[in-house]
Amino acid sequence: MADLTVNISGIKMRNPVMLASGVFGLTGESLLRAAKGGAGALVTKSIGREPREGHPNPTIIEFKYGSMLNSMGLPNPGIKAYSREMKFIVQYDIPVIGSIFGKNGREFATLAKHMEKYGVSAVELNLSCPHAHGLGMQLGTDKRKVAKITKSVKDAVSVPVFVKLTPNVTDIVEIAKAAESAGADGIVAINTVKGMAIDVELGLPMLGNKVGGLSGPAIKPVGVRAVYDISRNVKIPVIGVGGIFYGKDAVEYFMAGASAVQIATAINSRGIDVFKKITNEINDFMDAHGYSKIEDMVGISWKGRS
Ligand code: RRO
């Protein structure tokens, strides 16, 4: 039996398979279900200052083989009301990471302080949602804004600060480096890939918001490439996310340079105990290939072809 525990910037996890930010992290009860399903840590849905309903329906389209296009539009109850969900989940013995979004450094810092008060182990800055006006990737595609927001949050809280990046940029490495220089404790890569689908019978966009973010198996190579390039150029840990459905997908991300992984879309196909399933599959792979700890696999692909 391999050692599956990891320590990411001081956050100790029983396994490296985390719940990614998404609709599954909106309530305390659904976070608990992911914990019982075997997650090593939980990331909340992204929470903002005020309650937000999100974009008009339809907000999710499912494709063949498990990929999805969403434009939820950051629905959330607002940071004050979210204290109820946080009070519920922090009683359990599992790291909770508070995902937050705002429109500038001041707003992010205020949200981070609330999350810290609620007892999170870390905050994750959503600088990458692909379809929200003045938020998410509209900030996260500008390295100066990424640095400024990261620094504001670092100055405001003492818990680790992770920055979640968008793949919808020319050079993701320069954005990751800007976050690192501003004090980020980890990079999370990637958020969804901006996309669109059209109903050819109606001649209309399928999503209420017209554009959305693609997730699931279709984007795994995009995520692996991002993690590979980022992790070779920063010293802080990289958490890989995008299209991980099976243990070998997670192993691919470790070998690209990720120290842990996050799962969201796979819950829809494999159920809420997908975390246990993927952890067991990682363990089987490690046993079969003689790896004794996760670290032994991290970044091993770097020494291959140039
Ligand atoms: O809520 C969303 O629509 C959403 C968010 Br906050 C995000 O970061 N990424 C995404 O694909 N959808």
Provide structural commentary.
The protein is an alpha/beta fold and 306 residues long. It has a single domain, classed as TIM Barrel (Alpha-Beta Barrel), CATH 3.20.20. Helices cover 33% and strands 19% of the residues. Strands 3-16-15-10-9-8-7-4 form an 8-stranded parallel sheet. The protein has a 4-stranded antiparallel sheet with strand order 5-6-14-11, with no helix packed on it. A two-stranded antiparallel sheet has the order 1-2. α6 links the parallel β9 and β10. α5 runs parallel beside α6. It starts with 5 loop residues before the first strand and ends in a 17-residue tail after the last helix. Ligand RRO binds next to loops.
Summarize the structure.
It is built from ten helices and 16 strands. The model has no long low-confidence stretch (mean pLDDT 97).
Write the layout of secondary structure elements.
Elements: E1 6-8, E2 11-13, E3 17-19, H1 28-36, E4 42-43, E5 60-62, E6 68-70, H2 83-89, E7 96-100, H3 105-118, E8 122-126, H4 137-140, H5 143-156, E9 161-165, H6 172-181, E10 186-189, E11 193-196, E12 198-199, E13 204-205, E14 211-215, H7 220-231, E15 238-241, H8 247-256, E16 260-263, H9 266-270, H10 274-289
Parallel strand pairs: 3-16, 4-7, 7-8, 8-9, 9-10, 10-15, 15-16
Antiparallel strand pairs: 1-2, 5-6, 6-14, 11-14, 12-13
The protein binds ligand RRO.
